Structure formats: C-alpha cells, structure tokens
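Sanity check

After download, print the first record. It should look like this:
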Amino acid sequence: ISDVFLAILLFYLLRDVFSGWRPGVKIPRPLFWWGCIFILGAAAYIRGPYRDLTGHELFRMVKMTVLFVVLVNELSRQSRIVQACAAFLLGAIVQSAGGILEYVHGSPLGLYALGETSAETTQILSTNSVQGEKVWRVSAFMWHPNIFGAFLGAVLPMALALLLVRPFQFGRIYFLIALLMGVPALVPTQSRS
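Expected structure tokens:
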C-alpha cells in the first residue's frame, strides 16, 4: 500500500513543477553514488543467478530514490522539517502507549489486525531471546521488538533535539511527552537500540 502513497506524492510534486508553483525539482548530489550502486545492481540482475531477489531490490531502490527526491523538495524550510518530525513523534507516542500497555498487561493486547505481534510469535520470542531464561519483550504494533526498539532509537533523538531547539511552549510539551513515553517503552523491548 505504500507504493500508492508514493505515487500520489510524486504526482503532487510533478503537478507543482508543471503548474509553475515550483521552479524545478532538486536532485541531491548523493543520488549520483546511489545511481552508481543501482548500475551495479542492474549488472548483477542481467548476469546474476538471483534475478528475482535482485529485481526486487532494484525496484525498492527506485522507490527509495523517488521518496528521497520528494522529501528533499518538500522539506525545504525549517517549519516543514519540524512538521515531519512531529508526525514521526506522533507515531512514537502511539506506539509507545501500545508498548507500555503491553508491558503492564504482560501479554499482547489482541490487536493483531493493527500490526501487533501474534501470541505465538511472542511466545517463541520469549523462549529464544535469552539462553536459559524466559523474558517478555514488547513490540507494540510492530512485528518484532527489535523493530520497535530501532524505531524508537531513531525517533527519540529527534524529540530531544526539538525539545532543546523549539522555543514555543506547546512544542516543548509535545516533544517532552514523546520522550517521557518513548524511553520507558524502549526499555522493555530489550533491544540494543
């Protein structure tokens, strides 16, 4: 489903360019090296034995390139960057609330349709996480506790940076809530994030 949203974002970017609202599309310099890696992947696709895997990775690289170009062109001002970070932090708050509820409850919440890990998977993870011990690891609405931990590990520094930089009171409270919910939710993931 993310491909649909990516196509919509690209459509709006191209609409802005062709309507004259945007003077052109900025292509960042690091995409040159990304293009070189893409050419190596295309050569591996042509010559290599693992065409399905390579083709899948090349398609993913094209999607990541489109997303990178859209983000570079859309996040052109400081206020837009703060808005994007605020959206990530809203996701962290919701995920952290789910993780804390899982930890307090001591089991999954039963919200499998929302992406929560199934009870069978959490049982396997609890017996295989630490040798000789059975541990409970929260994953909130993500597939695995390590993914949840990596997400929080990437997003919580944004909250700390914006807490220190943003001058207005509501923003500070919002970023502080993200930190106060995210850090306690990160600990029971028991990941190295």
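If your output differs, re-run the checksum step. Summary of this record's structure: Helices lie at 2-19, 30-47, 51-74, 78-105, 119-128, 145-165, 169-186.
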